[in-house]
From TrEMBL:
GO terms for molecular function: catalytic activity; thiamine pyrophosphate binding. Pfam families: TPP_enzyme_C. Residues 6-49 form the Thiamine pyrophosphate enzyme TPP-binding domain. This is Thiamine pyrophosphate-requiring enzymes. It comes from hydrothermal vent metagenome.
Length: 66
């Protein structure tokens, strides 16, 4: 597509629209409690993890981050 900025949907809201439990995690310390709650819950849970696009992943090099 030209001249269009595509963005990701709100996956947690999308999950909730189907009757699932949707949780959004934005910071590392938020993940463990969200995961523990999902494991304890009888509901199907989707955990959406928002990460900074500039952070290097373990398999990415600096050249790939541009």
């Amino acid at each position: 597509m030209i001249a269009t900025e595509l963005t990701n949907p709100d996956f947690a809201a999308f999950a909730r629209s189907f009757g699932l439990r949707g949780v959004t995690v934005r910071k590392t310390p938020e993940f463990a409690p969200a995961f523990d709650e999902a494991m304890r819950s009888s509901e199907t849970t989707l955990i959406e993890i928002i990460v900074d696009k500039q952070i290097l992943t373990p398999t990415m090099t600096l050249n790939q981050n541009t």
